[in-house]
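Regression test case RT-17, inverse folding.

Input:
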């Protein structure tokens, strides 16, 4: 279905499709970037893949026949991320990870400093997770997707999503606990 523009064939949405795309898909651009950022662990790579995903979504928008536009877009982003990883970092897809979790404290200057440190540790721990565990955690905890939405986005059965989330949370918790224990031992040695 090509249109003619000044004698050239153009594949792409017409103005009505473009308007629907802008209304249904563009509001989820931040979620698309966020997912790409956590899977790829790099801002520049995530920006490139998110942009490529949006172009792909626009190009194939004719194939979207209703439903959840956010899940549809995030599935495209996810697939684009894994394609990018296969081309650029194939070993990363085979790597397993460790996990941990931490509690927040009251808002005092000391607790704010600790919270900043905890955020850094959490970010590092999340980035150390394998991409498949990172993606389910990001989709559930940061993007607020339901198990059903995650299953659709990742093409996994809901039971697999639930077990992957449980394993990802356990590994994240172990990683953070290990990190805290290592910091405590280091602090004791300094005293």
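Golden output:
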């Amino acid at each position: 279905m090509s249109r003619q523009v000044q004698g050239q064939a153009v594949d792409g949405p017409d103005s009505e499709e473009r308007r629907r795309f802008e209304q249904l898909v563009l509001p989820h651009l931040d979620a698309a970037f966020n997912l790409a950022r956590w899977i790829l662990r790099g801002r520049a790579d995530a920006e490139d893949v998110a942009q490529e995903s949006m172009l792909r979504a626009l190009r194939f928008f004719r194939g979207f026949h209703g439903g959840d536009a956010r899940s549809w877009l995030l599935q495209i982003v996810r697939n684009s991320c894994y394609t990018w990883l296969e081309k650029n970092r194939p070993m990363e897809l085979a790597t397993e990870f460790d996990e941990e979790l931490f509690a927040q404290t009251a808002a005092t200057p000391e607790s704010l400093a600790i919270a900043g440190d905890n955020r850094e540790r959490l970010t590092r721990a999340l980035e150390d997770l394998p991409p498949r565990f990172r993606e389910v955690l990001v989709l559930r905890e940061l993007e607020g997707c339901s198990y059903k939405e995650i299953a659709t986005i990742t093409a996994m059965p809901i039971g697999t999503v639930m077990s992957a989330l449980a394993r990802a949370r356990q590994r994240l918790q172990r990683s953070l606990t290990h990190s805290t224990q290592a910091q405590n031992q280091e602090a004791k040695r300094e005293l």
